[in-house]
Design goal:
It is a single chain. Strand 4, helix 8 and strand 5 form a beta-alpha-beta unit. The chain has 12 helices and 7 strands. Helices cover 38% and strands 18% of the residues. It has 2 domains: 1-35 and 161-306, Rossmann fold; 40-153, no CATH class. Helix 1 (6-25) crosses helix 9 (228-235), helix 3 (46-63) packs across helix 6 and helix 5 (90-97) crosses helix 7. Bound molecules: S-adenosylmethionine (SAM). S-adenosylmethionine binds at residues 38-39, 56, 83-86, 107-109, 111, 163-164, 178-180, 183-185, 190, 239. Pfam families: Methyltransf_23. Keywords: Methyltransferase, Transferase.
Amino acid sequence: MYSENPARDALRVTKAALMNQVARFTPGLYVGLTGQTGRGNEKDPPARIAAYFRRCFNEYMERLGVESGKEARFLRGRSVLEYGPGDVLGVALLMYAHGASSVQCVDRFPLKRATDNNLQAYRELIDTLGPEQRERACRAFVEYGEPESGFDPRAIAYAVTRDGLIGRTAAYDLIISRAVLEHVDRLDMTMDDMASALSRDGIAIHKVDLKSHGMDRYHPFDFLTWPEPVYRLMNSHKGNPNRWRVDKYRELVERNHLRFKELEHTGRLEPEQIERIRPNLAAGFRDIPTEELSWLGFWMVLEHALPEPAPAVHA
Ligand SMILES: C[S@@+](CC[C@H](N)C(=O)[O-])C[C@H]1O[C@@H](n2cnc3c(N)ncnc32)[C@H](O)[C@@H]1O
């Protein structure tokens, strides 16, 4: 096993393996102990939280080719599913405000929190909307325009499920996630769940971050050098990166009879940085070409690959 400081790494493995069991059996306690929010910083001021979710929403629309001002035309009547929203359902609120018929959020960890800060972030989001969107956003809550009353589940529903799966069939016209797929324990199960939940002519968009999330020890991407069994022992239930690279996504997209409308990396490591760790890579990564292994993240837009069944012809 690759290490430049075996004593420190042995201690790291022991501590991480113990916390992994806490995350496995008591995800709520794990979230409490580690102070996770989803976005990484609970102390962000509401204006910054709101700005983050506006940016997320705008990037989804941009990637989907929806011009600014035409969001309502695109979203009207569409049911939306969001995997892994984190502690603030900001994207869900904006999707609903811009015309989505309903938004279902699903997570594996119970991160959603109605702190004063987060409630203020919802108000900030509402305040920057035009009159029509603002009216819809206000109706997303149990009491009109009152975030502290909670979301009306007919507009925006939130579920925490085992493995973060929704378990529905052809139920959503738009499926979104950002900074989630790299965290799911079982990517194959989540991709199966997503493909089956997507309606026949639906569209899915995911932003995937392939960076190490602070788990490198000595060199960029050296978190890919832990042998898989050791890495799983430390991380399999925590929502830490699952380490799948883009080759795995290609395989799962094909297996689920989906197709890429778009697949584009968001940045790459220098080839020399990959070559430096290549001799120590864990088995599953050794055959991935440097060009692909260097991806730091990507956007993918997906749809069903199979054409609509032709209408039956009656004699
Ligand atoms: C880095 S946060 C991103 C949160 C949010 N999408 C954002 O952009 O701020 C990762 C999210 O994925 C969720 N998550 C982890 N494992 C999951 C799973 N198996 N299914 C669904 N969500 C999961 C986490 O609980 C968290 O909400």
